[in-house]
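Predict the 3D structure for this chain.
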Amino acid sequence: MTPATAPPVPRPPLPQRGARYRVVAPNSPTAPGIVRDFLGTLLRATGHPRLVDDARLCASEVVTNSYCRTRSRMIRVDVTVNPKQVTVYVTDEEPDSPPRPVHRQLPDAERGRGLVLVDCLAARWGVRVNDEPVPGSKSVWFTLVE
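Done. Predicted structure below.
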């Protein structure tokens, strides 16, 4: 049998120009709300009101995944904004178990739909292991386009 290898996960195409913003929150039940409020305020202030709802929902799902599935003490959210798109990175301190969307879900399941929503709403999304801020930290990122 010939071994199969998966292609490397592509790094997101960051905007060439754009303003960068960051918020750091404790990895706690309050983190999704902190990040939702931050993104809503930021996107309205930078002229992206049409992206607010999708960004808040996607970020909330990704931050909730970090809270539920990692022992990270802090969650870092980096946002790059330009006139055409917004890219959001949610970074935790654990590279293990990168999230994957579960497209086949039981109709009455209470969990497992978060990344399916991100997959549907974002123009692109992915996962990468970082060298910093903590070696081996993981970022789940998504890009929304105007």
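The helical segments are 31-45, 52-69, 114-121.
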